[in-house]
Specification:
This protein has 16 helices and 18 strands. The protein has helices at about 5-10, 25-30, 45-55, 95-105, 110-125, 130-135, 150-170, 185-200, 225-230, 285-290, 300-310, 325-330, 340-345, 355-360, 385-395, 430-445, and strands spanning about 20, 40-45, 60, 65, 70-75, 80-85, 90, 175-180, 205-210, 235, 240-245, 260-265, 275, 365-370, 370-380, 400-405, 410-415, 415-420. A hairpin with a 2-residue loop joins strand 14 and strand 15 (about 370-380). It is α/β, with parallel strands linked by helices and about 450 residues long. It has three domains: about 1-100, Poxvirus poly(A) polymerase, nucleotidyltransferase domain (Beta Polymerase, domain 2, 2-Layer Sandwich), CATH 3.30.460; about 175-345, inorganic pyrophosphatase (n-terminal core) (Alpha-Beta Complex); about 350-445, Diaminopimelate Epimerase, Chain A, domain 1 (Roll), CATH 3.10.310.20. The longest helix has 23 residues, at about 150-170. It binds manganese (II) ion.
Length: about 450
């Protein structure tokens, strides 16, 4: 049987998930490391055994082994070492590996080979922290730059990711933890921290959704969206708590030892040890994807995840929003029309404020090749004021990114050069990449 079959059989099994452990080859199929297994073996506690006796006609096979049906057998045994896998208890993979090696059975030869290959790659990434983070970050579709077979990479990545998530969740056990987005939170920050705090609570963790008592003003471009759609009040706290970060992974002045982990979709800053960072359109969508198999997202949570994703992807127009994101977004079954929501909540630059004021409120500082760059981002439905803003950027020596959402064009001014793009490019990071590539090209030509 394959993974899907194993999952279905386990989900249909009438016993509480805490009272059994999935064993041997079936546990490896569940984790995506083996393709197939003959049947499912589980180890159950005494309590779990009583549960099963009530629900099934068990057939004894001797040595504490029983047959539940043609597909599942159990042993009453509470000495197996276990790991968590998406809400299931599974046998510790190292314990299983030692067992198949020592059992020395003909049928295990192929399996040992598969596991040896798996562990070779697994240990490589375990011992190279940056490589491990890079592997986790790229999702399953972008393995070109790694020196392992794609199939192995997929398995290793999946299990390293599960391990990271488990580490973060285990570090929260028996503690009071505060889930926090970034300063001046936007929709994705608030929604991801709210949803993650609910998920942690469902796992018995004393978690709160919070904001700090400073820099807590909601960012202006999501204010209306949040006011009309998000009526959950975060706890306002000082920074002397235990935190889980969402939607950012820099310390922002918080002590490193106070941060148990982070879930994010921005580049890793290596300021926090336990981090799950993957390139999704929004952190909320990332959290949805990581936990949807083990947490039942309610209608409101799904809608909020969808709204956060709209806000973080310029209403699904930005290059950040990929085909894989689209599939996940569709699963959320948002009932409203995206264009209608965009018209209602997408705040473009208010030109009545005047050019000086807009340069003041839309600027952000970046470091590029050790040079400080101030960038201004303008969003608009026309290019009426474009020339005026280019002149101002020239005068102040700023980088200007002008995004026209009606024509779906972008105009970039930098260093006395105007670049016109016939697509939307609102990420400053990607604009830097584009500028870098142009510099390389002109160097080559020159
Ligand atoms: Mn975000």
């Amino acid at each position: 049987m394959n993974r899907e079959k194993v999952l279905n059989l386990l989900n249909d099994l009438n016993i509480s998930k805490e009272e059994y452990i999935v064993l041997s080859s079936s546990s490896l199929v569940l984790r995506g490391i083996y393709e197939k297994c003959g049947d499912i073996d589980i180890a159950v506690t005494k309590k779990g055994f009583e549960e099963l006796k009530k629900n099934y006609q068990l057939e004894s096979k001797g040595n504490n082994w029983y047959k539940i049906n043609d597909e599942i057998e159990l042993v009453v045994d509470d000495t197996v070492s276990k790991e968590k896998y998406k809400g299931f208890n599974v046998q510790d993979i190292n314990q299983y590996f030692e067992y198949v090696k020592s059992a020395n059975r003909e049928k295990d030869k192929e399996r040992i080979k598969v596991l040896e290959e798996y562990f070779k790659a697994y240990n490589y990434f375990k011992n190279n922290r940056q490589e491990m983070y890079r592997l986790i970050e790229v999702r399953d579709n972008n393995f070109e730059t790694f020196n392992f077979d794609n199939n192995i990479l997929r398995k290793v990545r999946h299990n390293l990711l599960i391990e990271k998530i488990n580490n973060i969740i285990n570090s929260c056990k028996d503690k009071e933890v505060y889930v926090l987005g970034h300063n001046n939170p936007d929709a994705d920050s608030l929604i991801s921290s709210y949803v993650l705090s609910n998920i942690l609570k469902s796992k018995g963790i004393n978690a709160h959704f919070c904001i700090l008592d400073k820099n807590y003003d909601y960012t202006f471009h999501d204010k209306k969206l949040l006011e009309e759609n998000f009526n959950h009040k975060p706890k306002v706290v000082d920074d002397n708590r235990l935190f889980i970060f969402t939607d950012h992974n820099d310390l922002q002045g918080i002590k490193k030892e106070n941060v148990l982990g982070a879930f994010d979709h921005h580049r890793i800053k290596y300021e926090i040890d336990n981090i799950v960072e993957i390139e999704y359109a929004s952190t909320s969508l990332l959290i949805y994807d990581l936990f949807k198999d083990e947490y039942d997202f309610n209608e409101e949570e799904k809608r909020l995840v969808a709204l956060a994703t709209l806000s973080d992807s310029d209403y699904l127009t930005s290059s950040r929003f990929t085909e894989i994101d689209r599939k996940l977004f569709d699963e959320l079954e948002l009932k409203e029309n995206v264009k209608d929501l965009q018209l209602k909540y997408f705040i473009t630059t208010d030109f009545s404020l005047g050019v000086d004021k807009n340069f003041e409120i839309n600027k952000k500082e970046y470091l590029r090749d050790n040079k400080k760059i101030t960038r201004i981002q303008i969003t608009s439905y026309d290019d009426n004021c474009l020339d005026e803003y280019i002149n101002k950027a020239k005068e102040l020596e700023y980088l200007l990114i002008w995004v026209n959402y009606k024509d779906e064009t972008t105009t970039i001014y930098y260093d006395n050069e105007v670049i016109k793009l016939n697509y939307l490019l609102s990420s400053t990071f990607l604009v830097f990449e584009l500028l870098n590539n142009r510099k390389e090209l002109s160097l080559k030509r020159g």
